[in-house]
């Protein structure tokens, strides 16, 4: 940390501005926020050429470094990706506003009516890697949920993010909302992240990291404010002896191979020891689809293409066309295996036996547990949340997909007629 | 921190035991937990004499120190306080079990049914001062909500708490639940608190401090795991020009004077500058009831017994028969004053004007906001929660009274029929 005093002061001032903006946003009408989002989309479309130019400059600078292709791909904005970003803002405008919703209310014997009403959290810090689209997504989700956003993107995407942020702020200005509702951390030195993780002088209420494991691990380790995140998704599919084999093959294949790089992709397939006949077809289905299978002895014995799984494999998030596969003793064995090796993210059972399924759904302590469905449904959109800023595996407040509702909190409003306490 | 390796290992082992017990508790039936609570109550009644003896030993040791009378009072268990503790356990047994409740559920277009189901948080650490009754209260609330409890009470009440914990564990044993579901930290050196605040090797999910400001401040400052707490309750009553004066006097008096030592007691009374006639009767009501009034110039001008309020007074939680009183410019002035000086705990408006009241309820960013009712309703029992472990002023997960529901989290259970993601 060799942040200069000037930078530190600038960061604290930015936090103070965000706190001020949050107060205005908390009271902004849905209609005004939606107009802002639509104006942002228009500004992004109008600035598409400029955003693309800035993106090219970012990419050129990044190419001189020794970066992975996947990194450069995420950094790159094509015209269709810019349009998708604008469309994403309009989609968020079309979602219902969570703020002000009366979540529940009841009347006390003395006549007081207690309501639990949804309100914004306040100021949310988003720390992300060089994925320019997160700038628009995260800014928009925070705005819609009535929160001010402090965005700190990866330095390799700085110019692109700055061009996008300018569009977001233009949208805010056009409808009379404070443009400090969405701010970008100006410098890209690492000390600004440290300050954000400390809460930026008490101005940040929540941090959401978006990026790879090392970023999330650092945020989880160092943050002194609440964090919504998941470090990894070691998701399991357990195929019970009472499963329909055809359904099991379909779910296993989808859970593992539909997209291998997302956190809801399955990394381990567990098969009931009472259904040895399931091994061969499930292994074949995976290998035929181009998936490398690492297995226990039983799996290896069924198919010579299965390589031995090490102890580490059972706790590995491959995010690739690789899977660990083995046999467990029934649903209890599966539950014990998941408790030991899982990451409390998403786990699924395939079975036609309802009692077995209910046991699994009850006893597996993960954010999302499924019966006869693919783990790849672990996604805010698939839940019907409309948009998500990530998946949380922590236990408090947000667990599972983090959408607009999860970016709010509540307060109690009590309406009385002069009641005093006895 | 001069904890020996032995103590550290013992603490970590205790955490691991709690984690194991939490798994069993999460699946325990309501009926079994309730039988345990009733057995605990019976054990406390049967051991009343022993508990009282241990309490006398604690008090004797404490009397040799220079402790406040209020401290000794909280440490002291009379026969009626022991009976109240047993009765409290039975009351918690009679409350509905929050675990397993389906909070909401919906069906996706593809036929999957998504349910949000209440589950326990896991392991809760309670750090409290020398108030032996917290041992029973906190242990019982954690048990009923399916959580394992690690109790760390003040050293001056160690013997009493140990005697109570033995009764709680006896109740657990009698119904076949692990007695490690409620554990007491064995030694009373401060390093054990430090270990708990770090999360005890990843075994503690949540810390709840119970005690005075210095304890809560330390926990808030050093905890690396989530904390449900409030540092102070600087609660306001704003009397609007449209208030019924009689109602205002009644609410002000109750909010300040019913009990002055609780966090929901009012510390500041704000009066609308458009209603100067309210000042004199409200000040008189307070002073007649034995309350010292510190006021701004307007208040001082109305009554010579009003002493000048310093800048610090407006942000002081007296917890005593002292109040700060002054004039603000209407509801906007009140909202601004509360934003500046309040503690986001509990604030009330007295007015007959519904629009003004709604503005206050909407704009004051506190856990609890009231219209025409006393701030002393800031209490889980008064909310109908049955029992509470405290009030939280943090924004995430629990805000306001922390009862059984707030000691739970949720997971998503998805029931499908073979759905895979497109």
What does this structure look like?
The structure is a homodimer of 422-residue chains. With 422 residues, chain A is of the alpha/beta class. Chain A has two domains: 5-229, Aldehyde Dehydrogenase, Chain A, domain 1 (3-Layer(aba) Sandwich); 235-382, Aldehyde Dehydrogenase, Chain A, domain 2, CATH 3.40.309.10. Helix content of chain A is 43%, strand content 21%. Chain A has 15 helices and 16 strands. In chain A, the strands form four sheets. The first copy, chain A, has a seven-stranded parallel beta sheet, sandwiched between helices. The first copy, chain A, has a four-stranded parallel beta sheet with strand order 5-4-3-6, sandwiched between helices. Chain A has a three-stranded antiparallel beta sheet with strand order 1-2-16, with no helix packed on it. The interface between A and B is large, with 60 and 60 residues.
In short:
The structure is a homodimer of 422-residue chains. In chain A, helix 6 links the parallel strand 3 and strand 4 (148-152). Chain A is built from 15 helices and 16 strands.
């Amino acid at each position: 940390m060799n942040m200069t005093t000037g930078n530190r002061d600038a960061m604290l001032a930015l936090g103070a501005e965000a706190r001020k903006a949050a107060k205005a946003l908390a009271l902004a009408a849905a209609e005004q926020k939606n107009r802002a989002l639509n104006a942002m989309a228009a500004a992004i479309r109008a600035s598409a050429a400029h955003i693309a130019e800035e993106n090219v400059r970012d990419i050129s600078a990044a190419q001189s470094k020794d970066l992975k292709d996947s990194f450069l791909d995420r950094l790159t904005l094509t015209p269709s990706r810019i349009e998708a970003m604008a469309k994403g803002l309009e989609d968020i405008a079309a979602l219902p506003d969570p703020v002000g919703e009366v979540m529940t209310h009841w009347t006390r014997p003395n006549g007081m009516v207690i309501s639990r009403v949804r309100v914004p959290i306040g100021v949310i810090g988003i720390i992300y890697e060089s994925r320019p689209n997160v700038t628009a997504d995260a800014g928009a989700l925070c705005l819609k949920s009535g929160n001010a956003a402090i965005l700190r993107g990866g330095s390799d995407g700085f110019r692109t993010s700055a061009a996008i942020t300018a569009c977001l702020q233009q949208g805010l200005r056009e409808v009379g909302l404070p443009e400090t509702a969405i701010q970008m951390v100006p410098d890209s030195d690492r000390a600004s992240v440290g300050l954000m993780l400390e809460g930026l002088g008490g101005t940040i209420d929540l941090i959401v990291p978006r990026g790879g494991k090392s970023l999330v691990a650092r945020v989880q380790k160092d943050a002194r404010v609440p964090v919504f995140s998941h470090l990894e998704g070691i998701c399991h599919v357990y195929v019970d002896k009472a499963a329909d084999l055809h359904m099991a093959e379909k779910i296993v294949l989808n859970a593992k191979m539909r997209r291998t790089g997302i956190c809801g992709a399955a990394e381990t397939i567990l098969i009931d020891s009472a259904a040895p006949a399931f091994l061969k077809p499930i292994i074949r289905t995976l290998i035929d689809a181009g998936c490398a299978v690492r297995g226990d002895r039983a799996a290896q014995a069924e198919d010579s293409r299965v390589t031995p799984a090490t102890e580490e494999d059972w706790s590995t998030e491959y995010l690739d066309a690789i899977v660990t596969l083995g046999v467990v003793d029934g649903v209890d064995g599966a539950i014990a295996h998941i408790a030991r090796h899982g990451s409390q993210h998403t786990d699924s059972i395939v079975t036609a036996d309802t009692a077995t399924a209910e046991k699994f759904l009850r006893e597996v302590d993960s954010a999302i547990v499924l019966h006869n469905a693919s783990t790849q449904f672990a996604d805010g959109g698939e839940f019907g949340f409309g948009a998500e800023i990530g998946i949380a595996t922590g236990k408090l407040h947000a667990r599972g997909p983090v959408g607009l509702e999860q970016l709010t909190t509540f307060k109690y409003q009590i309406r009385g007629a002069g009641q005093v306490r006895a």
